[in-house]
Structures
1.
Amino acid sequence: YGKNTIKFLRLHREGKKHFVKEVEVCTHLRLTSAQEYLDGNNSLVIPTDTIKNTVLVLAKKNGIPTLEQFAIDICKHFMTTFCQVAYVKTYVQEVPWQRLHENGVPHIHSFICVPDGIRFCEAEQCRNGPLVVFAGIKDLKLMKTTQSGFEGFCKDEYTTLPERNDRILCGELFCKWSYGECKDFDFDCIWNKIRECILEAFSGPSDCGEYSPSYQKTVNCIQMLVLSKVPQVQVIEVVLNNTFYNVVDMKNLGLINDKEVLIPVEAPYGSCACTLGRK
């Protein structure tokens, strides 16, 4: 049991310069006894309102140096404070605020919300077990307008999809990775490096791109690049939900539409997922 969607903004000041972290936190506990379920005995139950207040107090006292460290702080607090806690799991996601710039100069206290992917993390621990940390990015929308196709697929009497060697590849990406047992990592640096790997593997070189024969192959390329460049990652999961675009037939309007005007097909949509780990 626990408390979901604890939302708050943590403001940190260094002189005139301000720093912000707006987050949403979900924290769940499992107790050593189920007596509150079986007998209605609440003597071991830590109220969910207490869980909420604890999260806010830890944000006040410790700040949020990184999402991962904040999740670790929450887990450690409940595990060390209450002997009846057998397991704790905390999920933290960040609102993507970025500092505004005016003529290339960073503003000291103004920010803009840029929806270019939402950062999140999870930390979990069992009593007498290691503290395990996960991190990820979700709602990252990516598109490339060529260097993508889909050919040679299985066909039967119900297949109507034509083969294509030049199509738009567009999708919303979810990526989650495991660090294994918690260590003293530079979580911000690693997260930014993985995000760069995702963009690099999806798009290819800036001057020519890289051909993708399928969404599945693109997913695998992302995972392989991350595992090759980021040794701290042990297991990586990628889900890519596809957005298809159909070319509008303009012949009855007296025009030839050479893939210049397209309509997105929002539903139903395809999806592919893969989890890849080290040996």
2.
Amino acid sequence: PAELSILNNCSPSQLEGLCSFLQLSTCPEPFLVRFCSWLLALSPDLSYTSAAILAEQLFLRRVVSLTQPPSRHLMAALTSFCSKYSHPFCRVLVAAVLQEHGEGAEQTKVMCELVEECLEPHSVQLVLSQILEVPLSGKLLPVLQAVLGRQEVLPPELLDLLVLTLCQQAPAFATSLDFAKLVTAVLTVYQSQVS
């Protein structure tokens, strides 16, 4: 709809107010899919700040509160939004999920799926750097595995940080099969760079 061009003309506070007025954080998921398809067609593209605000308003509460697998509508909306605005999405949503304490099994699965199927290479690197900023936990190991599964070329400093983190965390994960798989993946994918 032509009316959506207003999203490009709002200040951050106006956009937050508009999202609140439209109740986007609680709108039905089938509408969420349609809204995201409209966002993809928007021209010009949303600014980074606007995309970050929309990522927070549309998805943050939904993903953080997951206690069972996400609906196909929610995954479709996440996937379409990520396909165009993966960097602001990662800055907002991935950071929030990483800071959540507890098991977070469903959030971990969503992050793995997005890393494996949607994110652009620079966003995969962003996810990796975000993971390495927080204490490593069992719920993050599958996400790291998904990042390595992409076999992206990593900047030397990020690869060094990954190796250093794995070395430092090894005693805490001495009996973890997932950690062993992770170390094996690093040695396999980046064998020419790891001494």
3.
Amino acid sequence: REGPLPVTPDPGNHGVTSVFLKAGQHLGFPVIDPSGPEQIGFSRTEYTIKNGERWHTARAYLAPVTNRINLHVVTGATVLKVIMNGEKRAVGVKFLYHGKVKKVSARREVLLSAGALSSPKLLMLSGIGHRLHLQEHGVKVVTDLPGVGQNLQDHMCLYGLSWNLPRLSENNILGAIDPAMLSNYVHHRS
């Protein structure tokens, strides 16, 4: 509910969303909190908006600290593996950048944030995972941790679905820009 990246729930004051939520309930699905523990169901859309503008992780987390001397951002690189010092300590990463394999070391900590699928993949490529699975693929075992790569879950949001709906008059919701709404954004950031 708090933190640098704002989460703004859909205000829910338009009819189409309510119709889809009711349709989901009619099919036996609950209306859920998309950030809650139960992920099977229908929900209102949540947005990352602050002061009427779209926010993203780089703007929320990186922009405030870009002047730090210990922060180096490399774009267009592919991490190949986490470099380990023994069984329990990550000390750097190996990555591919402009066709060359490079290494970078960390003095304090390595943060791995590659998503629900790529994070366990990088751990396994680094020798952390189920011993038999790693050996089967010729990866040197650093730490036998059978849970890596199991029970993968991610937030599934289906934003690309389209429906043809009859013209609705309610707040002109089918796409025309309303000058009053534009004025409200410019003057009140909402």
